[in-house]
Amino acid sequence: xxxxxxxxxxxxxxxxxxxxxxxxxxxxxxxxxxxxxxxxxxxxxxxxxxxxxxxxxxxxxxxxxxxxxxxxxxxxx
Length: 77
Description:
- The protein is built from one helix and five strands.
- It is mostly beta strands.
């Protein structure tokens, strides 16, 4: 089975944490990739830190920031 298949995910992120970890001010960085693309496959980077979440798109044109209070408000709705 090769290429894009209907009903299959087209994006992926891989994170495996087997123990609790302390996040310092540098934070944790997750790179999100397109699953089926060979060129230009990175969608962006998610940075999780004490201050909140930051999303940097793959083309790097702008950075989106959300504090933990804003994230809690979005998830509670």
